[in-house]
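Technical annex, item 7. During the second reporting period the consortium partners agreed on a shared format for inverse folding records so that results from different sites could be compared directly. Each record opens with the tokenized structure and is followed by the designed sequence. A conforming record, contributed by the partner at site C, is shown below for reference.
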């Protein structure tokens, strides 16, 4: 079969020749009904009978891989798609540097690989669960469609990880695949594995922040796993990254459109001080200081996903050739890191300082730094909109010590500027930096759904271009209740 094109003749679309892989096909077909139950219980609330203008992958050719058409979400063709195998690919880092990439799981790395795949897999359905109620308050059909596109693709990413578990990890892989459908975001007894994936996504501003900041953590993790010496994992992640780009686009442009609308409204009303929250809110738009608080929250929660700054697990996974660095193959060094150091932000005698650590154990810190650099790009765009509108206000990323639950700074409190403060000051002041209940109520008050074709809620601007180049009055979702 042609690896570029996806076989849609089988129940589970794929480009991995499933029809000749009876055992795995059977396992996946056995898992399918549970997935559909999960989707109907925990997928988007409502709209399941609506026709949604969605893209489906029909190929893994980067030049053209998606087809847009109306589908009902439960009929979406969730498939298993791996990027084409690179001929003679070698392991690009670690102790096995230069050896042929593995096509099967090496026995000694089985547990580590399984754990990484399960953790990645767990995040995919979690975000769908977190976002399931958002359809009810979508600011437009365009946004509603984008939400559902992200949701079905996260569903596909779950399939991607489940395929790896079922094909390469035998019985325990099948058990893990079932567990992925059993855990629930925010559940007291059986939560999702990572903190940020158990938080609520209460409103559309949170959704945009989540897709900008938390999906971007996903991007960094997928990039590192795309370097893996375990070739099927590498190929899986490479294709997932193609889809993931759209999720972050939704976040970046979503926030841009909110900023745009706020600036326009302030200008029209003759407001010169963007920090005059009451005046701005009276216009029915999101004030910039509240936007900054939302940003503080989602950025800090996402930083926690990188784990401890100094980690022997990360060092072991690198040494073994399982998880590499961001853009590993483009880095000009020996890819062994045995004698290198990397500066790590640490708490030293009550001060935040850079300390050189062995580069191997500092890999989480390095990936987090790469992530922060990637985050900055969006801030530049948002700040450009603000300054172009003539306002003196800058959105900024808070200090990495701010509001952390994992790593070096989990036991201390710091301001967004990185000034250490005591518990009492934190309790007194945290409402200045993180969304308060009042802020949440205000945002919730804006979240009234808009379902007329081509219309947008008054707190957000229309997008510059439509999805699939569709015109502004395109009916992205044909609502059927
Ligand atoms: Fe994903
Ligand atoms: Fe995503």
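Designed sequence (site C submission):
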């Amino acid at each position: 079969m042609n690896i570029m094109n996806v076989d849609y003749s089988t129940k589970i679309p794929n480009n991995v020749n499933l029809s000749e892989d009876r055992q795995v096909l059977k396992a996946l077909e056995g898992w399918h009904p549970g997935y559909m139950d999960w989707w109907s219980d925990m997928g988007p609330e409502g709209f399941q009978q609506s026709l949604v203008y969605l893209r489906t992958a029909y190929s893994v050719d980067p030049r053209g891989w998606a087809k847009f058409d109306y589908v009902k979400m439960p009929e979406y063709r969730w498939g298993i798609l791996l990027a084409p195998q690179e001929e003679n690919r070698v392991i690009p880092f670690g102790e096995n540097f230069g050896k042929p990439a593995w096509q099967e799981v090496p026995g000694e790395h089985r547990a580590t690989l399984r754990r990484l795949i399960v953790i990645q897999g767990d995040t995919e359905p979690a975000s769908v669960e977190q976002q399931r109620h958002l359809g009810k308050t979508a600011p437009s059909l365009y946004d509603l469609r984008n939400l559902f596109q992200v949701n079905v693709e996260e569903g596909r990413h779950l399939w991607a990880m489940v395929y790896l578990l079922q094909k390469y990890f035998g019985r325990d892989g099948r058990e893990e695949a079932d567990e992925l459908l059993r855990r629930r975001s925010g559940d007291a007894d059986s939560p999702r594995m990572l903190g940020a994936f158990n938080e609520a996504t209460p409103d559309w501003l949170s959704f945009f922040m989540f897709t900008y900041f938390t999906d971007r953590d996903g991007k960094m993790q997928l990039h590192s796993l795309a370097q893996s010496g375990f070739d099927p994992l590498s190929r899986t992640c490479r294709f997932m990254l193609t889809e993931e780009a759209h999720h972050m686009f939704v976040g970046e442009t979503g926030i841009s459109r909110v900023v745009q609308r706020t600036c326009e409204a302030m200008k029209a009303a003759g407001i010169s001080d963007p920090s005059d929250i009451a005046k701005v809110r009276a216009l029915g738009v999101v004030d910039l200081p509240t936007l900054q608080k939302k940003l503080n929250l989602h950025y800090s929660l996402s930083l926690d996903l990188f784990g401890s700054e100094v980690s022997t697990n990360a060092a072991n996974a690198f040494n073994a050739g399982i998880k590499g660095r961001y853009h590993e193959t483009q880095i000009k060094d020996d890819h062994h890191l045995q004698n290198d150091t990397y500066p790590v932000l640490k708490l030293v005698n009550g001060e935040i300082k850079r300390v050189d650590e062995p580069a191997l154990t500092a890999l989480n810190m390095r990936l987090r730094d790469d992530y922060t650099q990637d985050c900055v790009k969006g801030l530049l765009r948002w700040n450009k909109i603000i300054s172009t509108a003539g306002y003196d206000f800058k959105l900024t990323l808070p200090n990495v010590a701010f509001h952390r639950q994992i790593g070096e700074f989990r036991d201390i409190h710091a301001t967004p500027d990185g000034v250490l403060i005591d518990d009492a000051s934190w309790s007194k002041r945290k409402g200045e930096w993180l969304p308060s209940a009042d802020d949440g109520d205000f945002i919730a008050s804006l979240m009234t759904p808009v379902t007329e074709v081509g219309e947008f809620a008054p707190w957000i601007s229309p997008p510059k271009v439509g999805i699939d180049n569709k015109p502004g009055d395109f009916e992205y979702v044909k609502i059927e209740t």
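The longest helix spans residues 231-268. The first strand starts at residue 51 and ends at 57. All partners now use this format for quarterly exchanges.
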